[in-house]
Amino acid sequence: MLETSSKLDFEKNIGSDLVHLRQKLAYTQIQMALFLNVSRTTYMTKIERSSEPLIKLLTAEQRDTLNILINADGVSLWLDYLSISFNMRSADWLVRQLCQTGYDLFIKRDGGRYGYNETYAYAGLSLITIFGKKDEPKSLITISGQGIRLLENLLMQQQRHMLDFLTDALAGGGKVTRIDFAFNDKSRFFNIKTLYDKIERQEFTQQFKSDPAFINNGHGGQTLYFGSRSGEVFFRFYEKDKEQATKRHVAHEEIGIKNRYEIELKQSRAQQFVQNLLANGHAGNQLYGYLKHYVQFYDQSVSGLKKQEIAKLTPWSPWLIFLQTAQKVEYEPEPVNLSMSRSLSWFVTQVAPTLKALTMYYGQETIDEILDDTELSDRQKKLLAVAEKINLPF
């Protein structure tokens, strides 16, 4: 029998071992047949009930598909960006009621953006920003990917969940103008370049009007864009490990997330998504619907085929497995201390070597005197105050 923690040994494991694998992964016989590109009858009678070694039952491509299935459990779903506007709420309401904090956690900045003339930045950072108007009860909150993690930490301290935050926002008349989610792929279902090659060979279909855009950033990884940034639906697939390895100056093998698949929804799409999320609590299934509807990949070119003919084709197995996995994944908060860890990482890679050289040249006493005389900026003081108030670890 196949052990749950092992890889398939195609020479030793037999067809009937796939029953255990299928049950472990919670897939039906129909789904397994789709993955292996065979009929359910063929899968059931000639593969799953067989006592022959898998090496004799499966093609090389089918064996690759099964390996992807075994490694397909390393996927997480993060909320990655949020923007909510209010027509009858002031910036003060967002600070005190929605965020349930005080102004001691925000730094006020001169001016604003998007037609607003007041700006409040959480801890002085641009990760969580509240915009308002001095003479009108109109406001906007924008939260970036790192800001989402910081907000999740704040909500955790308040014994609240992100869904509570969204519920309060909509109850207060908020309109979600943008929401982004990201699937973090820790095993790499497929290479980004492989997707682009399939696009070049016309082995895909899409509902977007513009052509996909492929960017090769060398050591920084490859990125594939679907749709227009100005549209209500936009996808971005990229090699997260290589992007982060370049930024952090480490080997990409050290980065846990291999690929990231981002889905960006705006305006009516964003509002409807959040309403559905609050109604049923499921994010993964909704995002699966967007992915399946807007993009499909196949094993053959669809050039010249009619819609009815394309509809009969079986999707490319790695893409199909990703979709099935995405459908099962649910959003879970990942509250972490981003601001201080980012500052420490910057210090280690950019400052520490220079500081060490200066210490060796001038001596520790001189460096200590300089540090003692150094004054923190208002932004740095606010950041420390925030860290202490919500118990962020240094």
Radius of gyration, taken over Cα atoms and rounded to an integer in Å: 25 Å
How far apart, in Å, are the first and last alpha carbons? 47 Å
SSE run: HHHHHEHEEEEHHEHEEEEHEHHEHHHHH
Largest sheet composition: 10 strands, antiparallel
Helix content: 40-55%
- Derived structural class: alpha+beta
Q: Please provide the count of β strands.
A: 12
Please mark out the parts with pLDDT under 50 across 5 or more consecutive residues, or reply none.
1-6
Q: Into which percentage range does the β-strand content fall?
A: 15-25%
Side by side, the strands of the main sheet go: 2-3-4-5-1-6-11-10-9-8
What does the overall shape look like? Answer: globular
If you average the pLDDT, what whole number results? 87
- The helix count comes to 17
